[in-house]
């Protein structure tokens, strides 16, 4: 078994932290010039903010850290396939590459549902690399929902 | 000519303020229990935040004001058809009704492109009322882009 890339390991740690906080366990990391500049867990309940997905939080944190709206020299790592909201934000931010773990047939918008980056109206298409850390990301999600079902 | 409903007039005022600030002129208003609880202009450049569309800003402000993640008893008024990011946020927030002005064939995600609310994977569909204030919203946008083209 090969080790996972560092950003995905950090994203999986953030997903586990989300689970402990009672949030759907998804984590994300933003990399700029080879360095991690933002890490975030999914937190809509805790923050009482329906937009506070892990991807949105790292994009906003990275834009604030770099002092600019466009992140064309940044890569996003996230444990779950982004939803429509987050895929839209990724396109607006002009993120170069998206690496994600598990696919999400129910809410994903990259390889499922609206397949946003494949839409003719999508104005920026990042390179997309799915499946990295898929097993771990899926296990964290399954454990979370199994425990909640009791 | 009938007057426009108060929330759309306020949203159009916010769109004009965005234009004066050099932002693509879109404005939004959030109504809860018959009262306007948040108003915002599109501001990704000024705030250096690619997620700072008018809709995202009023949703976040309203969730903060009400202290909860779900806005199922709220209506959103916006001058332009929401994009995929904003449509996703509207669904996550469980907003009851969306009233919008001009359609957006280039970036809209309600009646154009991914038609997000019509996707089987969309977990909440608001009632949607397009075309209210369409003429004014479209004129503000056209004036803005005409002036920028010089």
From TrEMBL, chains A, B:
Active site feature: 55
UniProt KW keywords: Hydrolase, Metal-binding, tRNA processing, Zinc
Known EC number: 3.5.4.33
Name of the protein: tRNA-specific adenosine deaminase
Binding of Zn(2+), residues: 53, 83, 86
GO biological process, one term: tRNA wobble adenosine to inosine editing
Domain CMP/dCMP-type deaminase: 2-111
Stated family: Belongs to the cytidine and deoxycytidylate deaminase family. ADAT2 subfamily.
TM helices/strands, residue ranges: none
Swiss-Prot/TrEMBL cofactor(s): Zn(2+)
Matches recorded under InterPro entries: APOBEC/CMP_deaminase_Zn-bd (IPR016192), CMP_dCMP_dom (IPR002125), Cytidine_deaminase-like (IPR016193), tRNA_aden_deaminase (IPR028883)
Organism for this UniProt entry: Sphingomonas leidyi
Lineage: Bacteria, Pseudomonadati, Pseudomonadota, Alphaproteobacteria, Sphingomonadales
A single GO molecular function term of this UniProt record: zinc ion binding
Subunit structure: Homodimer.
Domain of life: Bacteria
Role: Catalyzes the deamination of adenosine to inosine at the wobble position 34 of tRNA(Arg2).
